[in-house]
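PROTEIN–LIGAND DATA SHEET

This sheet pairs a single protein chain with one bound small molecule, NAP, given as SMILES. Inputs appear in the order they were entered. The predicted three-dimensional arrangement of chain and ligand is reported afterwards as a token string under its own label.
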Amino acid sequence: MRKIKAGVLGATGSVGQRFVQLLSSHPWFEIAAVFASERSAGREYSEVAKWFLPTEMPGEVAEMTVKSLRELDDADVDIMFSALPRAVAADVEKRCAELGYAVSSNVAVHRLEEDVPLVIPEVNASHLALIGHQKKRRGWDGFIVTNPNCSTIILTISLKPLMEFRIEEVHVATMQAVSGAGYAGVTSMAILDNIIPFIAKEEEKMEREPLKILGTLEGDRIVDASFKISASCHRVPVIDGHTEAVWVRFAETVTAEDVKSAFESFKSELKTPFSPKNPIIVREEEDRPQPRLDRDAEKGMSISVGRIRESKGEGSEIKYIVLGHNTIRGAAGASILNAELLVELGYL
Ligand SMILES: NC(=O)c1ccc[n+]([C@@H]2O[C@H](COP(=O)([O-])OP(=O)(O)OC[C@H]3O[C@@H](n4cnc5c(N)ncnc54)[C@H](OP(=O)(O)O)[C@@H]3O)[C@@H](O)[C@H]2O)c1
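PREDICTION REPORTED AS:
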């Protein structure tokens, strides 16, 4: 089978490097072009990417010349993976779709547009049906598909099996890794020996995106799930792996055992290279999950849950801890899994 030609937009950044790492050994895709800012364009990838991953920079990409976004029109690719800053991605992703490329984006800017699928394959693969409406409405040969924000994806995968019970309200407090802020995002003097109790625009995304993902496709639109989410987001001195403390209130009686067994029986029907066998792994130890021990589960594509317990007091409330790899399951790996789903369903 001919490999599918992929371009990476924002290839030198925190998520972009993950794309390069993960795509370079992918059996279906090959990296045909890498794009970054004018600062990097025209230079060799190895010269401008400050490689920070523990594996070697892939040789075939190291020698590539980084392209400028002005060269988009001549890119010989089938799909663009996007890890651009929001302001840049707004027009660039649309231009790519106009040019006929499939765009699998990490970026927030188009996620909540009515005809743009916001997808986690194990949760709402059917929402890809919006692609047909998007292409028709906008007159594009290509299309844009997005994956959620890194903390949203981890929370939402854990909420999906709990949708069989009636969820009334969700509270979540995050402990987010520094790689989520981008390569130059948080200085060491700000984060070492410290916690920063604010991440710009993060709480808004966590309170809104899961409702679209867990919503129902009706014709050419998504009807959002109807419960309320309240989030508090914090940056902590961990390199990779977001941890979240979650409280879920139900409109019916639900025990910790019910929740544990819903997590355990949650499986993926997708059998593609990046699809984890167990999207959710239940950790039995009382002090798990932990970032260093659990973020790389199933090559970073599984989330881990633990400390599932009932809240004391009135009503039916369960609390638990969930953890996932923010730049793999929460970013580059998520876009690649979406692309695999596009291939499986014949969109690519
Ligand atoms: N980090 C995460 O865990 C995570 C998770 C989910 C989603 N995201 C989203 O993914 C996107 C990338 O995040 P990141 O953390 O990887 O950021 P980053 O480390 O700052 O990387 C940004 C990338 O975009 C390029 N770029 C910057 N300005 C540009 C311009 N004007 N024109 C063309 N390219 C430009 C940079 O190239 P140069 O090297 O040449 O400057 C670099 O390759 C953001 O939208 C972010 O919100 C991030």
